[in-house]
Amino acid sequence: MLKVTGVYKTFNPGTINEKKALNGVDLSLAPGDFVTVIGGNGAGKSTIMNMIAGVYPIDEGQIILDGQDISRLPEYKRAKLLGRVFQDPMMGTAAGMEIQENMALAYRRGKPRGLSWGITKAEKKLFREALRTLDLGLEDRMTSKVGLLSGGQRQALTLLMATLQRPQLLLLDEHTAALDPKTAKKVLDLTEELVSRDNLTTLMVTHNMKDAIHVGNRLIMMHEGRIIYDVSGEEKKNLQVKDLLAKFEQVSGGEFANDRMLLA
Question: Domain 2-81+167-263 adopts which CATH fold?
């Protein structure tokens, strides 16, 4: 479903602020893969997601999504192929619009649009049924402004919107990091439910090593713009946090004490 080959990215090249964010990344995801991504600060986790989404142009390499070369495709043209949930719950929704209006925008993504902005009865029924799966009571608040929702409610809604039109690839960029532990667990459980239900190919960046181990069928670790560890199957199931910390310290030379604390 996804094949990233030899991708390089350097920010501010030739200046004192030069930063090599990606250094020859190779990554392949089979259809239905749920891959968690961990690594220290500046490892390139979010950058690889932004490269896939087209937020920044790559310097070198190739990105193939479901057989289509999207390496040079503008971000807005990739949007209909991807679902994305950000760390900040405020980024995935329009606060001044109603819940049903936000969902209508997500549902019509990539479709031809006419002059009519009305939401049909069929769409309202679809949105209500989808919202009911969240078990947050939002199906009875469809005309409420999204800005009135809590961070957890907005993040759950954003996740639902990202999967309304089954994306070829779902990108989750630390989407539970800004939530309290109880809400984060609920959103993560919802994530697993939606991914499993629709067999979505998913890439999830997280700083939570327990989540990285227990969620998905595959785990990769990044360091200094490269993938330095890739584990799946029974080996992943048998991992413990101490194993990942040992691997991290091995490749980082033990230099990143703050990252070690954060990853733990």
Answer: Rossmann fold (3.40.50)
